[in-house]
Amino acid sequence: xxxxxxxxxxxxxxxxxxxxxxxxxxxxxxxxxxxxxxxxxxxxxxxxxxxxxxxxxxxxxxxxxxxxxxxxxxxxxxxxxxxxxxxxxxxxxxxxxxxxxxxxxxxxxxxxxxxxxxxxxxxxxxxxxxxxxxxxxxxxxxxxxxxxxxxxxxxxxxxxxxxxxxxxxxxxxxxxxxxxxxxxxxxxxxxxxxxxxxxxxxxxxxxxxxxxxxxxxxxxxxxxxxxxxxxxxxxxxxxxxxxxxxxxxxxxxx
Length: 254
Ligand code: ADP
Ligand code: MG
What we know:
Layout: E1 4-15, E2 18-29, E3 33-37, H1 44-51, E4 59-64, E5 67-68, H2 73-79, E6 80-82, H3 95-106, H4 112-118, H5 134-145, E7 152-156, H6 164-179, E8 183-188, H7 191-197, E9 200-205, E10 208-213, H8 215-224, H9 238-246
Parallel strand pairs: 3-8, 3-9, 6-7, 7-8
Antiparallel strand pairs: 1-2, 1-4, 4-5, 9-10
Helix pairs in contact: 5-6
The structure holds adenosine-5'-diphosphate and magnesium ion.
Adenosine-5'-diphosphate (ADP) is lined by residues 15, 20, 38, 40-46.
């Protein structure tokens, strides 16, 4: 694929004698939302962190935006944005202070109010990080990935632990970021989320990629193989009830 912005070839990672990533190859196309799916321990975070230059690989080739990880890791760092765990933020600083801190680290000038606007947190500009709800913390941490105006952002389980409304709200934010031209690579345990959000997914199990395609294609292939889901009796589920009763938007923003 000529428009690949990330190209990974035969990537392997060993922790001691344990092989966590067993020779995986995949490409991420510029402008897409690419999902890495798989059970706990499959090797998703290891793979992301190697591409992010935060972890060493054992072997294989990684090219990001034309830069080879072996020879040009610093150039890779300049074109990517990485979401920190929410525990990585100084809890006592305000959102504006945190943004200015990161901007200083990246040597970037940034319009903090505009950035907070993008993630629907402008009215929280002077709130301390520790005062935010779980969903707000996640949105803020995604905002910080955008400070260095990256071409690609990496989100490792961005919606884990969020309530249904906050998850949906985050899906919209991630789509907005993609629609503005940023490539997104994320991991998730939620298949409904991957189906709504991802242009393509790779399913990884025990360090190997066992399928890679659009969600639509994977579903069609399964159906073509003769699979039939047991008929659903009801046309809605409990999550639909929850969303219907409580409203779609995040409560604290109403
Ligand atoms: P995932 O993100 O898919 O849950 P990880 O990439 O975190 O998986 O981990 C893949 C495997 O590598 C797991 O078996 C995990 O226990 C192991 N692992 C991860 N980090 C280390 C490490 N620093 N040292 C040893 N083993 C590790
Ligand atoms: Mg992980």
